[in-house]
Each structure stands twice: as C-alpha cells, then as structure tokens.
Backbone:
C-alpha cells in the first residue's frame, strides 16, 4: 500500500515538474507592437474558480473580433454561454495591460509551491492569452501571497472590460469564509 502511495506521489511530482518547466516561457511576443491582423486573432481567457464560500465561478473568453462569451460555472445545467461584445479600443487596452505586466514572463502562483504567506480555501484565477501562435497561461491561487499586484489588476481589468457584472451580478459582497493563513517560512520541521 505504501509503495502504491509513493508511486502516485512520484507521478504527481513529475507531472508538476514538467508543467513548471513547460509553462514558464520568456516574453516571446511583443504585445506592444501587434498589427490589426494580430489583434483580430487574439484570444483571452479568464476563469475564476469556486472557493470555500460564495465566490463567483465562471469562464470568460474574449475574441479578437470583440466577441465575448461568459459561461457560468455555478449553474451546472447552463451549457450555452452568454454573449457580449467589446469594442476594439477596449481590446487594445487589455492587450496593453498584458504587455504592462509582462504577462509572458509571469509564472504560476500555486499554493503547493508558494513560499510566501499562504491562505486556504480561496478561489483561483486562470488567465490565458493566445497571440501570434503563442499561448501563455498563469494559474493564480489567491491563497498564495507571492503574486504581484499587477496580476490582480490585470484580472480585474478583464472583468471590467467585458462588464462581467451583467452576468455575474454584484459580486462585491461575495467571497470566501473560514480561511486560515500561515507563513511557511515561520514553520519548523
């Protein structure tokens, strides 16, 4: 039994190591110099996950033509996404925000690898951009205190650009409860 448990843990560790190496490319796309054709091919995803509480859970997709899809993950019976639109100026502003935060150089901020303050039971945001055939995704567990403020700002900018409250409602009073926080640097082994 112990050998099976060890083998399973080893497999998980190997998979996580592969993901860490394969998901941290250097900034390879100059987001500040995209042509109009490049912008039309951009795809941006933002997924917000559940928490121990009442955090909104949804998936947003923004296409380069300005079309937006919102899929509510809180209502499992909902199969068809809600549709919306943003103008080209809002799309350009979002791409500029990705450039400002140097998104292609950001790593994942996962609780299990976090070396800063850690809190349990918080939601995550998974942000992704596809441009010029390059894809970069950042998994951001809100329980990890290592994430830069600019990443939070980018996630909020995506929500504001599509006016997510039109689908998710007022989320200002929603959030986690029962969280516990600790600093792994202060624990002794």
Residues:
């Amino acid at each position: 039994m112990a050998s099976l448990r060890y083998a399973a843990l080893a497999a998980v560790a190997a998979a996580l190591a592969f993901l860490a190496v394969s998901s941290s490319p250097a900034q390879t796309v100059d987001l500040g110099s995209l042509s109009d054709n490049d912008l039309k091919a951009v795809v941006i995803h933002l997924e917000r996950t559940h928490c121990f509480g009442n955090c909104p859970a949804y998936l947003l997709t923004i296409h380069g033509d300005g079309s937006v899809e919102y899929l509510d993950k809180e209502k499992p019976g909902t199969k068809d996404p809600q549709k919306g639109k943003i103008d080209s100026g809002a799309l350009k502003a979002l791409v500029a925000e990705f450039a400002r935060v140097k998104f292609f150089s950001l790593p994942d901020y996962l609780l299990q690898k976090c070396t800063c303050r850690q809190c349990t039971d918080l939601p995550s945001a998974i942000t992704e951009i596809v441009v010029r055939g390059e894809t970069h995704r950042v998994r951001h567990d809100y329980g990890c205190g290592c994430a830069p403020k600019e990443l939070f700002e980018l996630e909020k900018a995506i929500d504001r650009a599509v006016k997510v409250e039109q689908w998710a409602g007022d989320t200002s009073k929603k959030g986690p409860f029962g969280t516990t926080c600790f600093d792994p640097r202060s624990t002794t082994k």
